[in-house]
Structures are given as C-alpha cells and as structure tokens.
C-alpha cells in the first residue's frame, strides 16, 4: 500500500493542519489560507486540503494554489481521497480546521474529527458552537483572518492539543452509540 506521501503528495512526518471535504467558496478555504499565513507558524508546518474540487466551481483549487503561493503558505491539495485513507489523514494531522463564513447546518467532517479525537478549529457559525466548547473540545474562532490566525497559534501548542484530545475522548464516550442506545432504552422502558 502506498504511503500518504506517495499517494497525496505531502509529508506525514511534518506538523500538519488538515482541512477535509469538497473545496468550494462556500467553505471559505481562502480564509483558512489567509489565517494560516498570518499565524506565522514555523516553517515546518504544512496545510493539507484533502478532497475534490466542487463541480460547481471549476478552477477553485487553482485559485487556492495561487493564493497560497502569494501568501507563501506550504499547501498541498490532495484531490480525491480514498475512503480507506480518510482516518489515516485525520490521525496524522495535529489538528483539523474548517473556516466557513456561513454554514447552514452540522458538519460531517467535524463529527469525523471528534469521533477520532482529533483537535479542531472551527468558525463560530452554524452548528459548530453546539459541538465544540472553546478551549475544551476544540477552538472556536470568528470567521476573520486574524481570529483564524490566533486559532492556529493556539493549536500549535502541543499541551492544548493533548488537553483537547482527552476532552474529546470523554465526549466520544458520552455521544457513543452504546450510550445513546442505553438512553433510548430507558425512555422506552419508562413509557411501557
């Protein structure tokens, strides 16, 4: 089996920020790149956008590459990711980030990261504040470049990431299917 480096073109040994999902302007990936540049993390960090370009926005990935070049961001865009590699991508990342300016509902990507206990930075929009407690189960930021940069700087701290991982383990336990089934079972028994 090919390594992540061979398949997707980035170095899994370097500190990585992962953004996963179909890339489109709706997800404000430009904000992610801008914030990453402003964060001024050391040269060893890399930003990996994993996923395909939206069919609705042909040429968007090229725009992102040009922005990254302009801002001197070490960016890899993987393109389509095999289902069997998704978990490995998340687990090798120091954290994952989503920076939509507007999000109408819940994020499946956020759920994946929480389920695999991968720290996250998300913008304070949509359902994200219901899933992420700032500083405990992730970092919540306003959808502005300086705020995103500050979130990157916070999550560059390994102690904070470890704290968040532990909190996510507890959350995963609380939200797990076994716990949900037990709660439903109690409700059903109380009704019968």
Automatic annotation (TrEMBL):
Q: Which UniProt keywords apply?
A: Glycosyltransferase, Transferase
Give EC number(s), comma-separated: 2.4.-.-
Glycosyl transferase family domain segment(s) = 4-166
Against Pfam families, the record matches this protein to:
Glycos_transf_1 (PF00534)
Spans through the membrane: none
Q: Which Gene3D superfamilies match?
A: Glycogen Phosphorylase B
Entry-linked InterPro entries:
Glyco_trans_1
Q: Which GO terms describe its molecular function?
A: glycosyltransferase activity
The name this protein carries in UniProt is Glycosyltransferase family 4 protein
Q: What species was this sequence derived from?
A: Natribaculum luteum
